[in-house]
Fold each of these.
Amino acid sequence: MKRTFVVLFLLLFVSTATAQEAITGFTPENAKKQLTLEKAFEAKLNTDNLDQWMRKMAAEPHWVGTDYGRENAEWIQKQFKSWGYDAKIETYHILFPYPKVRLLELTAPTTYKAKLTAVPVEGDEFTGQGDALLPSYNAFSTDGDVEAELVFVNYGIPKDYEELDKLGIDVKGKIVIAKYQGSWRGIKPKLAAEKGAIGCIIYSDPQDDGYVRGDVYPKGAFKNKTGVQRGSVMDMPTYPGDVLTPGYGATKDAKRLDREQAPTITKIPVLPISYEDALPLLEALEGPVAPNKWKGGLPITYHVGPGPAKVHLKLEFDWQLTPAHNVIATLQGSEYPDQWVMRGNHHDAWVHGANDPISGMVALMEEARAIGELARKGNKPKRTLVYCAWDAEEPGLIGSTEWVEDHKEELQRKVVAYINTDGNGRGFLGAGGSHSLQQMVGEVASAVIDPQKGVSIKERRSAVNLVNGGKEEFELYALGSGSDYTPFIQHAGIASLNLGFGGENAGGEYHTIYDTYPHYTRFKDPGFQYGVTLANTAGRITLRLANADVLPFAFKPWQATVSGYLDDIMKSCTEMRKAIEKHNNMVDKNVFELAADPKKPFVRPEKKEAVPFLDFTPLQNQLAALETSIQTLSEADISKLSMDKRVKMNQKLMLAEQALTSDAGLPRRSWYKHQIYAPGFYTGYGVKTLPGVREAIEQKNWNEAQEQIGVLAATLKRFHAHIDEMNNML
Amino acid sequence: MKRTFVVLFLLLFVSTATAQEAITGFTPENAKKQLTLEKAFEAKLNTDNLDQWMRKMAAEPHWVGTDYGRENAEWIQKQFKSWGYDAKIETYHILFPYPKVRLLELTAPTTYKAKLTAVPVEGDEFTGQGDALLPSYNAFSTDGDVEAELVFVNYGIPKDYEELDKLGIDVKGKIVIAKYQGSWRGIKPKLAAEKGAIGCIIYSDPQDDGYVRGDVYPKGAFKNKTGVQRGSVMDMPTYPGDVLTPGYGATKDAKRLDREQAPTITKIPVLPISYEDALPLLEALEGPVAPNKWKGGLPITYHVGPGPAKVHLKLEFDWQLTPAHNVIATLQGSEYPDQWVMRGNHHDAWVHGANDPISGMVALMEEARAIGELARKGNKPKRTLVYCAWDAEEPGLIGSTEWVEDHKEELQRKVVAYINTDGNGRGFLGAGGSHSLQQMVGEVASAVIDPQKGVSIKERRSAVNLVNGGKEEFELYALGSGSDYTPFIQHAGIASLNLGFGGENAGGEYHTIYDTYPHYTRFKDPGFQYGVTLANTAGRITLRLANADVLPFAFKPWQATVSGYLDDIMKSCTEMRKAIEKHNNMVDKNVFELAADPKKPFVRPEKKEAVPFLDFTPLQNQLAALETSIQTLSEADISKLSMDKRVKMNQKLMLAEQALTSDAGLPRRSWYKHQIYAPGFYTGYGVKTLPGVREAIEQKNWNEAQEQIGVLAATLKRFHAHIDEMNNML
């Protein structure tokens, strides 16, 4: 037993051994068994199931609250039961707006009434379901009835407003029109409202999402002129989930905020439109020609405004408490029933959602089916598996968030890790998550074969990175937001992963009526080869976490990555200082005014506050100290470890991620507890690493930046103590 | 007298003195006189003259051979005579093609006949002159009648064909359609023919030259959907000028090549079209979607082809010997009549040419008028001034080239420098030329005031550079080709300058029927303020060269610049070596194939020949030795120099540029004698510095590269000897 552990810990904490059979967290003997099990698992995966299940679940629209959505949940529950899982539906009662009135019209200098309807296309019967299709809108836009001059604000992100400042253009009292992309959509109305706009229109420009990219549906995969991207604009960077029950479960009898007080509903009405509807509006703008980078793919000269185009936007929603049905399916662990490995994917869609989310959902189900079958034949996982099919992800990660909030205390005690998937397609592995899991995920990626090229998915990912000028090494990306891992990692501090394939599945169907079975099987993953590859990848990861002798967390990659984040921040701080010095010098020399074209709008730039020298040493010292401890842990002679200690060690490993959270959470958004990863306050999905410090610097809030350095150092100190507690067990 | 010379040479060879009154090449006393003269000159400049003369000369189309063109030449001659110049017309007889048949039609899968006609616009009567307007065509396209499948080749430059190779697409036997821009237009049919294409269509894409840039004419300055850019496609990088008389003047009785043998007429027919005419052709293409960087501003998905679009292109020209009338106006120098300072601008246009070339022509005339007036009042220039109005620049720099070839021997003895101008507009100084003149031009730029901002044009240029992330210091750009300086500097080795203002004069009128007086005065230089500023700048440069006690050549800036060119080349060689090593390594690892999408065209890249280590030491040693001699010349105590030696020194200074030429010229294009500057063989206008060496490396012709290093080193040695002869006079 003792000798076993020497080898075991060496495998765990030192870098991956060379022999193919060596896998992190397993004794050599158990590694062999595990790899045999994984091969048996892989052999059971069948593309036909994915195909059939997608046909079934994506046959009709199934957003939260629909009968078809509930039927899907019940059907999923039934499937899980048939595979030997203990499956239940947990329902929350969430606020969900359905669009009653949607009016957008150009009222000057000419008139145009926006159609707001995508057309059915030949060869895709699903697009012809008429009134059954959810009208295009942005969920959690406030009600409103506004009329004002229009201003084109590019993507409507912070640097676009800097450009508007240079042009001397103010959006106060105006309605803005912004292109989709450049940030998560919810940032656009949030920022527009902060700048004083009274309404916001979002459209898909053909350059980013239309004919410029490729042939449009149904000839090709891309967005035709009538397609509209639906989507939530809830202020998720403040908190996701039900807008009325922040931080706790939206159970039937939960105390709720008044809707008028809900801070995550937008301040101004916002509506998404097609590029066909955007064209007359943009064409009617005058004022300065848009900066070159703002110009899109419509056959017009893009102007910024304001006006003479004037628009009238009227939106009314039916705000109802709506049931959201999460399916929770459990397969009890044979050795550690109170250690849960969790897997999840949402089941609700905006319309049919063949790609988003059903392509991921059917992969998860096939994975669960195969594992259930293996379990029935005597290969029960050692730890408990919990498979989840979330409802109401689309309007704001609501199903998963309410569930995590509701069960937070138990989850923080029991969950080893949460593995998320969502839409999936042909291409390369994209894997994000807690960097303590990077080594294990890399090992699994070495074991899974790419269905098109016959090499490992890791090798293919590496080839793509190299061709695009990136690194050869396998790395996890850092998680921001955008799917159901958010409540797990950001709020509960549970180590999480997000997995998916893509890169050869481009299209314009996202959140439109065109995300259908015919579109998916023509353009996204014909034959479901990558659906099965996702099941294979996520399933192996799940099984490794479930069966590992010692949980396969490795902190050296974590240390290297987090040190890199700090280096980044310090470098960007220095660059910001230099750039501001240069700028101020140029202002002093009147260079901007001398260079400016007197026939174009010009606002003389102001001098900017100099960037102070921040004291990063608390972070540098903590990371240096941590490095030593992590090195110790990875090199230690742990031959003296008893079985009892091993159980305790696993317990400590599970909880390590939670040591990276702080109860107070991030400034102005206490729901976000994690101190290493968060979605950006002004990017929405895009991650900000070391967010407290990084965002304070980006916002030039120097006092807060110094304060957050202290907060983060204290978190790292707690994490260090946690690592040292493990070292003390050795 | 002796003391004078100490100061004099210090001014000449050391950097510019700080006192405003100190100017390179003048004794303090003469500097004062010169600055007084320049002020008097400036005071005489009158925008009204420019306005009137443009109205006159741009009233009707006046391409070479037209009656209106001849009348303009005669009128210019008359003006010069009235200002006291000895003015004559020197006529050459050049081959010039006039379009008889222009047919372009889509023949499959649908049909479309190209209109090939720009429409008249309201508010611009000149655009309504109907048949008097020259039909749109590319001069020196060969006759042809071809029909074939179409291939879209982006800009049709070398790297675009590399991209086509990756897609496995060959243009052999096809007709290519290329966007204007990315290179000089003549490169497109040249390269297409080298690749086996049988026809070439060039169009203006709205992204580069149309509504994407700004509002179109007549609402704004940019190209409307019917505008077509005319222009020469003669193979000027081989030799410019008359295609039948390479290297010698196209006099009446000159021996001429057969047209069929003329190497600079294109090998395949080529026709320019509007984006209105291009749209149905591009829309009919299938095959791979164009790479992202190739996509333009038309509202379509750009495909590469080949086919199914098939086009029929038929072109026939009337090939006539046509008289080209150069106006040569001389003002005899009072002290050094055999030292000529030359000024030139062309007078022929494609259509009305209000901007190109009349805006530059009227500035030159106003400058000459003012100088003539000063001369009549006793301020005769010390050296002879020769003002030239060139004909037939548009079809291939023909008027100037024939004249230079015809008078080469005399010019090489007598010309101090040639100063060129061409189209001009609102904005910032752009000055290119021989770097031995950089110091003097910089001093003049300090003395001329920007009409919009009230600071010197040098200061404004510097502000623009800084705002665009460039250098604060004033620098000349290196001359490639594109206007009449080419025969002077590239062929005869005469120090040259090219001057113009721009940057706030964007538009789409270039070589179209929209380059008219109304367009010019609305969008290019309303009020002719920059026309007069150009006259002021070029006039002061001319007067300084004419009156300098010692010619204001300074070689330290030359040395620094040329050393920079060598550093560039060595660096790019190293980068090329590294890139090829990386590429070959990736080919070995099969990375490209692993990364490729199996559903898209893919050609496995080949390994490339490794870049050898070239021996640059001959150039490094020559430049190092030169640096010492140039330092000596600039620091020397030349107090012992006699008046006689001063005359000899001036003679040596005049001829220094010629020491940078070699009789053999560049490989495969012996007309180009200059060893420091040449237009690129595959860029056309774009300069290649140290061209023999640089282009051999770019073409991966390693033997030739090493050989050209030797040739260039020998040239630098001759130049060094020339500098040392001056040192020996000290």
Amino acid sequence: MRGVVMNAPGDIEVVEREDPMIIEPTDAVVRITATCICGSDLWPYRGVEPVDHTPMGHEYVGVVEEIGDAVQTLKVGDFVVGSFCISDNTCPICRAGYQSRCVHGSFVAGTIGTQAEKARIPYADGTLVATPGQPDPELIPSLLAASDVLGTGWFAAVAAEVGPGKAVAVVGDGAVGLMGVLAAKQLGAEQIIAMSRHADRQALAREFGATDIVEVRGDAGVAAVRELTDGLGAHSVIEAVGTQEAMLQAIRSTRPGGYIGYVGVAHEGVALPADELFFSEVHLHGGPAPVRRFLPELIDLIWRREIDPGKVFDLSLPLEQAAEGYQAMDERRAIKTLLTVQETRESVS
Amino acid sequence: MRGVVMNAPGDIEVVEREDPMIIEPTDAVVRITATCICGSDLWPYRGVEPVDHTPMGHEYVGVVEEIGDAVQTLKVGDFVVGSFCISDNTCPICRAGYQSRCVHGSFVAGTIGTQAEKARIPYADGTLVATPGQPDPELIPSLLAASDVLGTGWFAAVAAEVGPGKAVAVVGDGAVGLMGVLAAKQLGAEQIIAMSRHADRQALAREFGATDIVEVRGDAGVAAVRELTDGLGAHSVIEAVGTQEAMLQAIRSTRPGGYIGYVGVAHEGVALPADELFFSEVHLHGGPAPVRRFLPELIDLIWRREIDPGKVFDLSLPLEQAAEGYQAMDERRAIKTLLTVQETRESVS
């Protein structure tokens, strides 16, 4: 089959990869309908994380092509949405809602590589969720968004205890930040302050439910959020960047006793000053989103057309043009790139 | 009046200080019955924090001697317990339960100095809570504990979401850690793992409700907690030290999705690695305890003799011997020192 590998930073190639097969009885092989490029894929692309001929991609929707003998909740032909974390969904950690840290868990990224025609998904029952039927084509982008960016933004909003009457600030206007805005709106936030310096992202944030836009960053950004919240800071802050600056901005924008949901992938060297955190008296929670916890609810909202997170994709390319998709995101010409998988390539594999 | 000042690190003196008076109409002057020395008082004593002829003490119980015209909930003669944070208890932050970050708030430490015969307490209605009547003398130590160490340990347990069925680990066997054990017991924890290397503190921890003692620290301590919790880590971890090592031990002892309540005062230079925190997927909350939130409940528990936190005081001295109290705690000869205020000194002031 055809699949994307990153040979080295900035070097994306679509190559022939071995067809995935059932190995464990709990596996499923999924024929990918659509996949996409994640903001986190840009870290190795920019040389910030190591990469060496790595199969890329961890977001995916598609059709179950084959299942192992132990798979019970899925059948061949089901249309499925998968999480970027493999989970058995039965261990104590999964049952507590943290499928992203399943005791049998692993990350799809870097190993399976779903920017490809097919993927072997371990613990299929615990990782994949079938849609109620075959989706209309216009639902595909939204279902694909549920696989990571929507699930991640939603987790951030839940971690930030967003709810009715709350003032919410969102640090980061990438796909996840924008999904955080959408989630905040759905969860009933009264005020949603999107921090963004890009007109196109501001427009999308407004469409998803932002009530205020703050263009300034750092101390000025913190001051602007405080001014919009009676001088107290936001009740809930969603952090969707992962840098030191963004984390500090989130901490300083939150009122004492408030909540930060942080999902920007923190990298080595980012450190939080414990004394500032201590006296800020905020709640801090985040990490890799347990998307599987939210998938049934998110699929239902999409299926009933109550939310349209697929709008976050502003570039759609065939899988074979993945390199252009990476470049467009790296140069910020695109917020997020959807890759359609060409059925016709099947005959090649 | 007589009062304790720390002239310089290690230099404690009881001196004549000016008698406090009503300044604002919301003030009360309290005649101190008992006060104590806090673990945090040892930071300047050891030269870790700056100190320069500073009036010491922020824990106190006593009798209202005078009130300002605007004070409504207290009358002269009331026996009161005060928090170490001044709070109006009416601002939006106080109403949300964070009286330690009241918009009109300030710390008692370093300014008022309750290791003295009297103290002026601003925002008396919002800071002090009257007991149901004049307490029996044997209740004084427990009521005094509520002023800080019990309230702080209790807050840590609440922040760590301690509750029925939970496995709780407590990092730190000082007075606050021991009060965390007591709080965890009261809040219904199933398993309470106290981390302590001192036999006397272990005994007290057992008395307060600890089910397990872990003597090792660092990686070995983390491994021991995991072994006691099905390899998963504790649901709830109380951090009551404030060092880098203790914070990392707390993070690593918590299961994914679990909660850390941290109340050890973090000092400059302590930094949390954001990447480790991210992938640990724990909830982190703490800071200066909003003791005022819990005071009515804690006073009630003490008054009904359901808890006996006063046992944490293992040394009692007259105010004039404060220097010996500091030394005993510094040398770990005492867990916590209670200072009784000599009524007879009144005539001197």
Amino acid sequence: MATTGFHVAVVGATGAVGQQMLRTLETKDFPIKKLTLLSSSRSAGTVLKFKDEDIVVMEAKPESFEGVDIALFSAGGNISKLFAKEAVKRGAIVIDNTSAFRMDPEVPLVVPEVNEEDLKSHNGIIANPNCSTIQMVVALEPIRKAYGLDKVIVSTYQAVSGAGAAAIAELHNQTHSIIKGESFNPEILPVKGDKKHYQIAFNAVPQIDKFEENGYTFEEMKMINETKKIMHMPELKVAATCVRLPVETGHSESVYFEVQHESIEVEDIRSLLRDADGVTLQDNPKEQLYPMPAYAVGKSDVFVGRIRKDLDEDKGFHMWVVSDNLLKGAAWNSVQIAESLVKLGLVK
Amino acid sequence: MATTGFHVAVVGATGAVGQQMLRTLETKDFPIKKLTLLSSSRSAGTVLKFKDEDIVVMEAKPESFEGVDIALFSAGGNISKLFAKEAVKRGAIVIDNTSAFRMDPEVPLVVPEVNEEDLKSHNGIIANPNCSTIQMVVALEPIRKAYGLDKVIVSTYQAVSGAGAAAIAELHNQTHSIIKGESFNPEILPVKGDKKHYQIAFNAVPQIDKFEENGYTFEEMKMINETKKIMHMPELKVAATCVRLPVETGHSESVYFEVQHESIEVEDIRSLLRDADGVTLQDNPKEQLYPMPAYAVGKSDVFVGRIRKDLDEDKGFHMWVVSDNLLKGAAWNSVQIAESLVKLGLVK
């Protein structure tokens, strides 16, 4: 731990994303003078390593946030609703990785490559978008800026780690059972709190989060609404179908989009994305170069490939977008927001 | 074997689809008086069971088709190109499951629920469409008939069995290796004859078949071109992104489509598909009822669910289409074509 820097709290430190937050704070060398690790009472007492130091995880309480500069929340929406305002009251800036405040008009929803400026209007809480939204807007923003954007239709291929550590364990255990010819009982996926559970190993499940009244899932509506908010485009047409796959980490997306300018070619889009912040272009069909989740794990960037012009619509294009959902989709985007806050002089 | 019925030949009897053809001929009780099983020289000599009878697989030669009424080909495009016309010359009707003749204007490309009538114009060879195309057009045709169809954008979630028995083995072996923490060397997928091979277990690979010059894969172009041909709609806008998953059998598709009529509602589409030939509607979000590949294996039907109206386009809808790629996508559609030929009196 450094002697200068910030007092950072991580809420939900023992979870799948919390673990990645610790690793990301280490690898990106965020300036930390004190690190407080918090969790529910259930996980309190766990000892976690940070830069070779042992830190005991404490149960989150309102008083836990005394003196904290930046609090990274990732312990579920209910914990955020309970404690985020308590933390703000005590002078912390909260970067919340749950859906609790994302659509609150008072709360900026930020992907630094897209709308870093929105941080300036924060009122103590900043929301980190949904994982599947983040990687898509990082790829779309340079295109919107250069050529305008009218319409997006996305089908996702999402990893189980988005549903937490228990879902990862379920994929492993089921895969084991199926290979050994043993029976098994789905208990977590597709949605922990929902009525029915289905096999995920060697399957594709078209449900992420619960269903809304309109037949879309919450995950699909998150992609639709968050994209419009982050890009400041309430008029943008966005449609989403979200599907869970037997992949541990790494979300993929098949994205169709229509630009506003005419006669744009694939090479124009490639040039933009080759130089875009946070994007690695992997797009060479001749060399079978395209992004894949198994090869994106552990990397911070959003990988884009398979860019093609639609064969019927002059303004239509297709692309394939892959990223580590625990990093750019969660931990890294949160730490990046913290970095932007420091850079913009927004942390006291 | 019955004393009346037809002399049927199965070419490629030892392959993943060939095996399913034998099982389908059994379960659908197709009228067979003689069954000839053929293969390349490599697999000749294998003994296969059909209705408790042992049949020795013979090497395919032009003479093998003497006296054959119906020849079901599924041994790769090269074998079809070599022998289909030889079979026709000897009086057989060929039902070809490869891509060899699909886009030949002289060859009907048939999905019986959609364009059975096209069989009447056959010249000896009938092509069975690509697996991913078949299940999509079965779901789209009732919609087209009732409300017209302008546009289709599909993203696929395809099983490895579409790439043959070696690809199934590769998925199994890799999964084993990864679980045990052992190293492995991808050798088959995504495309056996292509330069590079990638991990398929716990991954998603956006390449099925080789790339064309335009950046689309052959699989994607098959879906685009075959859909137009089967539905007799050269003007239909179709776009496809095809992705291979760690699923053994069962293709899934996220399909966006635009109808021509105005003010159609989800319940209108559901009503149509509830009564459609070859379709099982599984669509009740409240009960988490939707199709999934792991639960569609071994079934003949095309399963449709997740039907939603697009939130921006009055004429736009989304649906999720699943089917057993070895059955309706291959063996069952081929046998169904044979049944239609018999029903229409087209077999001598």
Amino acid sequence: MKAINKDLQLDDAATPSLRDGEVLVKVAAAGVNRADLMQAAGKYPPPEGEPEIMGLECAGVIADPGTTDRKEGEQVGCLLAGGGYAEYVAVPEGQLTPIPQGLTLEETAGVVEVACTVWSNLGMVAGIQEGDRVLIHGGAGGIGSFAIQLCKAMGCEVAVTAGSAEKLEYCRQLGADVLINYKEQDFAEELPGWADAILDVVGGPYLEQNIKALNTDGHLIVIAVQGGPKGTLSLGRMMPRRLSVTATTLRARPRPMKAAIVASTVEHVWPLLESGAITPNISQRFPLADAKKAHEHLDSGKNTGKILLTVS
Amino acid sequence: MKAINKDLQLDDAATPSLRDGEVLVKVAAAGVNRADLMQAAGKYPPPEGEPEIMGLECAGVIADPGTTDRKEGEQVGCLLAGGGYAEYVAVPEGQLTPIPQGLTLEETAGVVEVACTVWSNLGMVAGIQEGDRVLIHGGAGGIGSFAIQLCKAMGCEVAVTAGSAEKLEYCRQLGADVLINYKEQDFAEELPGWADAILDVVGGPYLEQNIKALNTDGHLIVIAVQGGPKGTLSLGRMMPRRLSVTATTLRARPRPMKAAIVASTVEHVWPLLESGAITPNISQRFPLADAKKAHEHLDSGKNTGKILLTVS
């Protein structure tokens, strides 16, 4: 088969052989994520035993059901530990999703990873409920824009940070209630004690401000450390307000945990995709062979929405 | 009535008047806690609307059931936001416990606060289960010695830190499996990636080591910051292992939350007190009038076990 190699060139690769419980999926489209850029730069190696090929999500058609009861020809979305930038990928059955009614295969390819990331953290870890207040950093990004829609669909009040008036306007259109330009305002001063949950991608440099912005019993969840990995934690401030900090990644989780996340995400988020409460936003499509161009486009920082590689 | 005043002297005080849902308890004995020392030093004021009198736990007999369906003369344990160093105290009904079968009123007075503190954190927040590995700092203290017994009764493996061979031997007798003298050993080097849950009273200075000592999906719970309130948090280390940090206090919680904690503690911990799996350890009794001596004894650091004030 053809696949994208480490140098981001289309190359020959061995078609994956199936392990017990895996199906072979003929890839229709694969999502491009920031983590792929890190992997291409050699900074985010795949977990042990997982493919070297990039690509954390895709959608396609089952070409070989292996030992499972799935049917050849079934259309599926796939949460991957790697391997999506290819014509075929082996996927543990627990990491398959149905195609949400009304969505295309391409739209599904671009929504699996973000949906599982946002739901596993805000839904399963922070346990957000109707009426909660959620602060989302980087609201205009792929994770942020999905999180805004999810939180609004669940009846939460949403504050976002972003770095320009245009990005904040985009967040407002997605439903965000409170807009903070982090270049002009300190979110902790704007929203002291406000947030029941915070979804953060900045990490260390935001840690003290995030603690200040949390409400009693609030939960900070860090899913990326784009600003730096370390920060100062004020445990003394946290105690009387019973605050929690959790840091997670999706990719490193063992397969049974991923299967549980996929099942919970399909249960809680797929209906919101089918009702239109959350709409996928595909900004650009590139043929698989142009993966390098797709990465350059994402890396430019000018992109709003999801970038896809189309395969077959 | 008589009560201990801010200067730790026995003094006249107004007998508490009951608010809706409160009962008046004639105090038989009250537990002495480290937090009381802080309050006496002016560093730990009571929550708004709660008594100025010290004392976070007691046991006694209902003298006036107020608007509740309780009976006059019923023996009860009491989790208090304050007021235990007195002949009478007003207690919200949700903060009453039964006397565990086989325990005296005095033993109950010394066990309510520690049981609710340990269970609310290890049981309700960290969710420890049979087979989990739990690291307990200050294993020989009041919290630590109770936590060791609870964890062993639940089938956990237990590691402790303490500052002397004598204290570690005491922890071993209570059931601790791994003994670490923090003056001679670095617990993070001894137990890298070991703990599913850590119960910490040191705070800032232990934060980086605690993160190193946590197992994947592990949870650090900080309930005191005796070493300092701030530390460095390595979010980058936490992400791939999905670690959580929670800091809590019991006293500042609103009454409905305290009632939920008391109910869960009575459900899960009282049977372990009744079976003898957890045994209260009363080291010293002082008459109420000698509260100052009781504080000096606790402050000396030589005490192992619970100090009680006996009232009636």
